[in-house]
């Protein structure tokens, strides 16, 4: 259900990688590349889950202008991002920061892997009863399937 | 009149589902074949009733009967026939009816095809499926009835979103729903196994074809959606780690894990509890998806038919169904017989690792999707979890999985020989490294990670082939024997090879497209041009191109390479007057596996003449992104056609032996 209903209704327009608009572009290609890199990590706050790199919304355009201005003034990526989070909160960045509150988010996946491995190792170590199919089961299995199983 | 027949059929279906559940559960406790037969009959009748209701709704859409509220809200008489038909499932109410159609359809299929199952297992499966039917049909009848009439019918309908007037999107929901709801049979089977207290090889074999079918449908559905996003949204993206996409991806990942763990349970009797757990989880994630997409708790680019009140009802259904399932699991699973000794290096171990990684990947997607909610509830501060998070967590997990993947099928059950496995795979490894190196050296701009990704894709493809070569003993047996063995391979083996190979093809496409895509945008007057990669794009002319329910400007664009015309495309920008929406029809030029992707943007007044914003992308190997999953789904279907999985075969065999 990839329906863009809301966004299309809200802005009457589709986002077509709006940031590549030549009218907004910076002169220096290196600075422009840096600005584009930052755009992809900045959320269009009024949109439904889009970065300002993609969105054609007015707010996204304004945010792009702010970012480009700062990049042109020689600010680094981290400085621009700090400027944005100071103004709009952490919500504005697509990448959640690595801090105590977000710990579960960042290490969760790897905890699952470790827990799985621990359970797996425990099972490998504990002796398991060897269950063979009973005659009756083997006969039934034979009936529902070909014997040729690799 | 026809809408009333549909309404009646829908309520009848609810009554029949209640009968199906009651008769089947009674059959289990009274051990009565008569009651069980009644339950199965009710399952079939419930399906037919929902089909009648569905046909009635479709009739209302096709004939543009605007006295039906749902048609008035979601259709328009000017819409082409295909999209009026597709409008049947284009709204929240209609799509819930489609969900019920699939649910009762799978219930009827389970009742009809399960003849070789033990009676108790079969009765509980049909009974559980009946209970699911009751819950979802009751929701549809009482909270989201698509067939209610309006007292005063409007003359014209409020048109459906123009973005949805697209062939890929018209057929996308039926596939997706067949996949989502196919997991319900697996869920019912798991409940039945827990009630009966037996999870054995035969049970695992019955579960597999249903999982395979649902997984293959889901693969096709997700791929169609991604393809639609790719050419319709107009910025060349195909996956955004959006909550709605994640909602469909989680059941897919769990189903993939279940397919692998069911093999272990079937062949070795090991991991029964885990397999049952995954069987319950798959449909739970399907229901979670239905809830997330419709409740509006998450912001999404694809927000669909959002309605918070209905969201609460869906959440209750989800909690009740999954809660009961997992409570039953917690109660009964400890009594399941564990079994199957295996060494650390063995096929079983490889499949367990596959399951650990796929489960962790699912957990990642779940965390990334729900964490913003949790965090906001806990601290009141909103955060965003976007693509960078998934790139840093999901991608490493999948990379580990893909490194291991080709090794698994070459290991023997119980105790594998790691050295022999390496011996059979060294050439695949060598080919992957060589290709990766060539890509690193030859493709500009130079990109180490991209080259490694390409090597990974080649490793998967070569690894899948190595497994087939091993089975036919290529170069180790006389050519004639290898040829004979090749034809004798079971379809299940081909299915696995295709699925693994398809994953490799997808990885090649995805890596190439994301790493080496080129973007260019300029404001061009008529006759102006821009360069994208090695291609020269000229905007030849702009002409108005009115459509049935929109106004449009159509550009004629010529693409040349080294002075030679390679293609002409006609990208369009459409304005739908009914909703005031603008959409763009992308111009796609296929160059082998790669695409030149052309978008006509807005018109601007420059100093002396009007200019149009033209965007061009060079998307290398983009075709593979969609062909890969198609091959995977094909693998699922080929596997499904394996006679070993066909339940009917056993019965016929039995009858033959009797005769």
Index terms:
heterodimer; A: 150 residues; mainly alpha; Helicase, Ruva Protein, domain 3; 0% strand; elongated; disordered N terminus; disordered C terminus; B: 659 residues; alpha+beta; 4 domains; 6-stranded antiparallel sheet; 4-stranded antiparallel sheet; 10 strands; globular
Short description:
With 150 residues, chain A is an all-alpha fold. Chain A has six helices and no strands. Chain B is globular and about 85 Å long.
Describe this structure in words.
The complex is a heterodimer of chains A (150) and B (659). In chain A, helix 2 packs across helix 3. Chain A has two domains: 88 residues, Cytochrome C biogenesis protein (Helicase, Ruva Protein, domain 3, Orthogonal Bundle), CATH 1.10.8.640; 42 residues, no CATH class. By secondary structure, chain A is mainly alpha-helical. Chain A has six helices and no strands. Chain A is elongated. The N terminus and C terminus of chain A are likely disordered. Chain B has 659 residues and is of the alpha+beta class. Chain B has four domains: 165 residues, no CATH class; 237 residues, no CATH class; 100 residues; 102 residues. In chain B, strands 2, 3, 4, 5, 6 and 7 form a six-stranded antiparallel β-sheet that branches. Chain B has a four-stranded antiparallel β-sheet with strand order 1-10-9-8. In chain B, a hairpin with a 2-residue loop joins strand 2 and strand 3. In chain B, helix 1 packs antiparallel against helix 2. The C terminus of chain B is likely disordered. Classes of the chains: A mainly alpha (150), B alpha+beta (659).
